[in-house]
Structures are given as structure tokens and as C-alpha cells.
Amino acid sequence: MKSLEVSFKNPFFKKASSSQPYTTANPFRVMVHKEIADNIRSWRFTVLLALIVLTFFGSMYVSLSNIATAVANVKDPGHLFLYLKLLTTTDGTLPPFHVFLNFLGPLLGIGLGFDAINSEQNSGTLIRLMAQPVYRDNLLLSKFISALIIVSTLFFSLVLLMIGGGLLITGVRIDPEEILRIFSFTALSIAYVAFWLSLSILLSVKFKQAATSALTAIGIWLFFTIFYQMIVNMIAKALLPNPAFISPGQTIYYNNIVLNVLRLAPGRLYTDAVTTLLMPSVRSLGPLTMEQMAGAIPSPLPFKESLMIVWPQVSGLVAATVVCFAWSYYLFMRREIRN
Amino acid sequence: MENAVIQLRGLTKCYGKLKAVDDLNLVVNKGEIFGLLGPNGAGKTTAILMMLGLTEPTAGTAEVCGYNATANPIAVKRKVGYMPDSVGFYDSMTALENLLYIARLNGVAEAEVKERAHDMLKEVGLGADINKKTGAFSRGMKQRLGLADVLIKQPEVIILDEPTLGIDPSGVKEFLALIRQLSRQQGLTVLLSSHHLHQVQQVCDRVGIFVGGKLLVEGNLDQLSRNLFAEENYVVDITLKEPVATPWRLEHALLQMEAVEKIAVNDNNIEIACSQNVTPDIVRFFVNENFDITGVQQKEYGLDEIYQKYFENNLTENTDEKPGGFFQKSFLQKSKQ
User: Fold this and answer.
1) Closest Cβ opposite residue B52 in set A31, A34, A131
2) Which of A242, A279, B34, B46 is the most exposed place for a label (fewest CB within 10 A)?
3) What is the pLDDT of residues B78-91, one digit of tens each?
4) Coil vs helix vs strand at B262
5) A132 and B111 in contact by Cβ < 8 A?
6) Segments forming the whole domain that contains residue A142
7) Which residues form the ABC transporter domain (chain B) (predicted)?
8) What does CATH list as the number for B230-299?
């Protein structure tokens, strides 16, 4: 992300904008513009869009038909947050939208980024582009930013559609806290997609063939969604002592270790964070002792507290994104670009 | 040097042990069309990439338009239009869109960008295909679009890497004429690389022969041939109806003639090298001896011979230093026929 600043602060851009302030466009903006247009016109994006919109409306339909029972459930401290309920309620036929997004998000990110660099190199457009007076990192950044702009627009319009539809159908006023929570859920989903996007861009720099990079990205995704948890649990079972023979303190200690290892998976980070944000009754992401629970009033957490709980998850996701991006930057900057 | 536009000093690039470009020194002046000639794998593309700052040299400097290409590539790229050997376009975009993109990247003002792109496409002869997707373009059309692409930024220098590759002969002629015309009209400096001798011969003011990473010789065609064939000024090639026996009984008699220096007999073909133009005397000699002459050809030295000569020299010096060696050999055999 820092390179964005760097290129904008570069003297060349300043000079260009000061000498002809109104006529010429900044090359970086031109590139982002072109990438967005390219993405929107592509079949691939149409398919991904259809997939996301379909799941969104599917889960909205399910939650709308069950919203009455969910809101009437007085035992749930968060039952009055109608719009949060819209996003999370389900009767078991379809998972709620955020769970869908947990595995569709990676697909979106991978789909938008897996051939970012290698397809340009294979078709011979990369060298033509690099012969123009543009910085190399601008290309990488424009691929990332343009896909991110598209994803953000998509998610925000879906969420706004959901809020608008909810307002029309139920007529219930939306709480400011709900808006905050829903928007931070959206931002988090974008960060999650951004991670997969930067990972797939990294692979597209690394591998010459688009098919290889796509397969590798999908392999990583499948590993984390299916096998990672299984493997960690298996190893934990084999290595950790039987909980029946150790003190509760030790049990919690080991439990935390396993949880932390599980949190290396980006999908897990996303689920944790999103669940906390969308369900204000969630108070902690780890195990809680009886003493900690004693005296607690079963009430929804304020937004700020929920945000504090998920802050490590958010930082983790953003950090992983930045690491992938920095790595692809490193690989791309010194690389031979002839085909 | 008077207004040198491209100045390479000791430019070297190594890939591991292989020296792709070896101590290249070259000056190209303003308004000149320079041809970089060499077989495939000679390091032409690598040298060009270093001039654009797209590849870092292992040693030496490349200076283009007064800027160091390695340290200041953006400034160089703003002045130089480069067409790669296999030029690629965004297939899903039309010719106009492809061109507009490049123009905008080069900071052409939004107000005039469309007009300029239209004019440029007409100029290179793609006026009818402006809104056609480049995915449907033929090789020659792509090459033309590539030229438009290079020219739209109004460069001072254009570098064309194998510009005639894969175009049909009539297309090549047109294309080269276009380049020459543009260069003369706008005072552009052109550097083009090729392994096609005849084509380069048609347009270049000066050529450099580049083999195995080394620039063997440079100069205009006259200079090159004079340097090379100093001892064989004129060669007469005589074709007879009947093959003659070797050793030829009249060889000695012919050598007695003034100015005749060397005779090579090959079936019904006799090649005679002489220091002066004595073609009429030689023909008379053959007629007197009752030979049936079917053809007399006075040889002029073109780039082909020069090229071949240099390869011969180079081949004897370093036989199998580089995989290019095989290619040179087969190339030689082909041109010797």
C-alpha cells in the first residue's frame, strides 16, 4: 500500500500535474481506469457477479422468511438488531451470507487476480506497456486497486440494497450502530477478498502460465478451508495431553495455542471477526471461564467493544495482504519482462 | 560526435556464464536509420532492452537522448518509441482503444487524443479497421498498429525489433517505405534490428553486424564492402552450357590475362576475380575458345556477401561458443547454394 504513496509523491507526477494541470491524466489513473473497464467487460467477472448476487439474494430470502421468529426470540440479547438479523438468520436450508462469503470471497479474489501479470506477459502486452513512461509498480498496483474498487462497489451496493430492501419491507428504523456494524462487516469482507486477490497476483507474477497460478491459488484456498483445521486438530490430539488429567488452567492454555494456530488460516480470521461484528452478543473469541462470566449481564456489546475484540483479526488479514503484495512487488520489480 | 542520440559504451550483459551482449560500443546520430543485423540469439533484443532501461546491464552505460537508460528509464521511454518483436495487443479491445490507452499513458492531452489516434491509424493504413478488435488482426495489421503505437507518442527515436517478421514481401516493402518516409519527414532517428539482410539494405543509412554479442563491424554499405573485399574488386560469374572438366585445361591461359587474379571452377560455372573490370575481354576469350556462354554476371557486393563473410570469419575464430553457432552454419549453407 505504501508504494501508492511513493508513486504519487514522485517528482515526475508532480511535474506532470503542475505543468499541464488540466489536460493530461495521471498514467496510474489511466491504468486503473483501463483495468476496471477490462474487468467489468470480462465474462469471468459476469460469472462471479452472478454467483455472489445469487447467494446474496438466496440468503436474504431465507433470512427474510425467518426474521419474525428471530426478532421475537427474547432470549437472544441481540434480537432487536433487525438488520444484523437479516444478515445472519437462517433456518438451516442455506447458510447465512457471511458464511457463504467465507468461501466465495476467495473465489472472487482469485478469479480477479490469477492472470493479472502472466497473461499480459504471454500476450506480449507487458513489454509494450513497460516501454511506455510508466513505473513498473504502477502496473501491479493498478491491477490490485482496480479489482479492489470493483469488489468494494459490489459489496457496498449489495449491502445498501439489503438495508434499503429491509427498510421497505419491514418499515423498521435502522440503528446507527447497525449501520456501523454492517459497514465494518463490508469493509472486512473487502479486506478478506483483498488478501486472496494479492495472493493470486503474487502467484500470477511467480508462475508463467495462468492455469498454474489459478490452480495453485485454488489449491491454497482448498487447503485452508478443508484440510487445515483437520490437520491441526489431528496434530493437537496426538501431541497435547488428555484434558482429563490436567488442570483447567492448562486446558485453557493448550486450547488457546490450538486456537491461535487455527487462526493462521485467513478464512478463520474472517469468520471470527465477522461473527463478532454481526452478532453483538459474542463477547470473546476464545474460551471463557465461569469466573469471567459471573456477573455478566446478557446484553449486546457496544460497537466499540466488538471492534476491539476483532482488531487482531483485522490486523492479521491486512498484514497478510500487505505481505503478499510486498512479495509480488519484490518479484516483479527486478524481473526480466521479455517473453 | 555530432548530436549522438544513442550512445552505448562498453555495454555488457551476462546471463550466468553466457555473455548475451559483450562490450558493445555504438553511436547512432540524429536522423539516421541504423540497422542492427545479426542472426537469432545474437543479443540484439537484449541490447535494445538495455537501451530502454528494461534490463539492467552487467557493465557499461547506455545513453539515449542524453539520459542514462538504467538510471532514468522514464525519461528515456518518454522520448523513445519501442516496438517489440512480437507485439501484442489487448485482444478484447479495438485498435482505437488499444491506441488510446497508450496515448493516454504517454500523457497526450484528453482533448486531442482521439483525433490524434484516428489520424495515426489512417496514416499507417488501418483507417478501415479502427473499430475492429485486435484479436481478429492479421500479423501485418498488428505490425502496422504497433507502428502507430510507437508514433502516437511523437518520439524522437524509434526502436523496432524485427519489424518485418512474419509479414509478406509486399507488406514488408510498404512497411519499410513507411518507416523511411516517416523518418525523413520528421527527422526521426530509427534503430531497427533484423536478420533479414535485403530488407535492411533497402532502408538503412548505416548497419552494424552483431554476432554472438559482439558488434563485428559498422558503417554504411559501401564502406563495409570496400573494407571487406579490398582484394577482390570485381567478380565475374560465367555460366556455360556444358560443364567443364576439372582441372580445367584453360585455367592457366586465362590467368595469363591482365588483371585476372583468381579462378574458381564449379561444373559449368566459372567465377573469375579480377582487379579491374575486364568482363568484355573475358567473354571474348571464352567465345574464341568456342564455349557456349549462357550467362554472364558481374557480381556486386551486397549485404548478403558482407554478412556471410563476417560469419565465415567469426566461425573460424570461435567455433562452438554459443548455440547460435549451429544457426550460423545452417544459415551459411543456405546462402551458399
Assistant:
1) A131
2) A242
3) 999 999 988 889 99
4) strand
5) no
6) 25-333
7) 6-237
8) 3.30.70.1560
